[in-house]
Amino acid sequence: MMILYNEAAGEGEPIVFLHSGLQTGNTDFVKQRETIKNLMKVITLDLRGHGKSLSNNLNNFFEDAADDLKETMEELEIEKFHLVGSSLGGLVGLIFAKKYPYFLISLTLSGITADRQDNWKELHGEDIRAQENLLHDTEIIKVLNQMHDSDWKQFIYKGRDEDWYPFEHTGDLEGIKAPILFMVGEGNKAEVESASKYQRLHDNVHVCVIPFASHLVHEQKPDVYTEVLMEFLNVIKEQ
Questions:
Q1: Cα 183–187–189 angle (5° rounding)?
Q2: How does pLDDT run across 155-211, given as a tens digit for each residue?
Q3: 225 within 8 A of 183, measured Cβ to Cβ
C-alpha cells in the first residue's frame, strides 16, 4: 500500500474524487470540484502510477489501488466520506466500497460495466487500436509525460490484455451499505444495462441516464452531471 498524492479544498463533509485513466486529481472532475468546494471539503487523489503517486507496480492494480485509498484516508484521519469515481476511478471506487464499506457515506459511479459483453473481444480490439494511435501522437505524449511522474505507458500495455477488466469485482454490489448513484451516458449501452442491473441488486441505488453522452459523462455533460450529483448529496444530507 502507499499514501497517494492528495490535495484538499473547501471545508465541511469530505468528498473524494477518483479520476479516470491517464488523468490526475487536478485534471479530472474540474466542473464538479469547482462547484462543490464551496459547500464541502473536496479531496483529490492521484491513483498509483498517475500524477505524483509514483509507482510502476501494476501487478494487482485494482486491489492495491483500493488499499491505497484506505491507507490514505487513514493517514488523513478521515473516517467517513462521499466517494465519486469515473471509469478507472469508478472501478477502484466500486472495489473499495465492497472491501471497506464502513468508510462510505455515499458512492457515485460512472463509466463502469458490470459484465463481460458478448462482443467484448471486438470492443477490446477497438480500444487497443485507439491506444496505439495515442502512442504515435507526439503532442499527447508530451502532455502525458508532463502530467505523470511514473511511466504512464504501462497502463496502455496492461490494457492490451483481454482480461484486464476486473469483471470478477464488477458483477455485484455485495457488502455495500451506502446509497449509490450511477450516472451513465445513453451512448454506452453496456453501461446503461449495468446501471439497470445494479439497481436490481441494491435497495438504495439511483440511476441517471444522461442523453447525448457516452463513457465519460462528467466531461461530456458536466453541468447535468454536477446538478444530479448535487441533488443526490442533498437528498442524503436530508435523510
A1: 80
A2: 998 888 889 999 999 999 999 999 999 999 999 999 999 999 999 988 899 999 999
A3: yes
| CA 162 from centroid of its chain's CA atoms | 20
Q: Which three cell numbers stand for residue 91?
A: 472501478
Residue 38 CB neighbours (<10 A): 11
CB atoms within 10 A of CB 114: 21
Average pLDDT over residues 24-35: 97
pLDDT tens sequence across 63-79 = 999 999 999 999 999 99
* C-alpha gyration radius of the chain: 17
DSSP 8-state class, residue 101:
G
For residue 122, which amino acid is it? E
User: Residue 109: how many CA atoms within 13 Å on its side-chain side?
Assistant: 30
Residue 116 three-state SS: coil
Strand pairing class (14-18; 81-86): parallel
**Per-residue pLDDT, 128:** 83
How would DSSP label each residue in 184-200?
A: EETT-HHHHHHHHHHHH
What is the spatial distance between Cα 81 and Cα 36, in angstroms, rounded to a whole number? Answer: 14
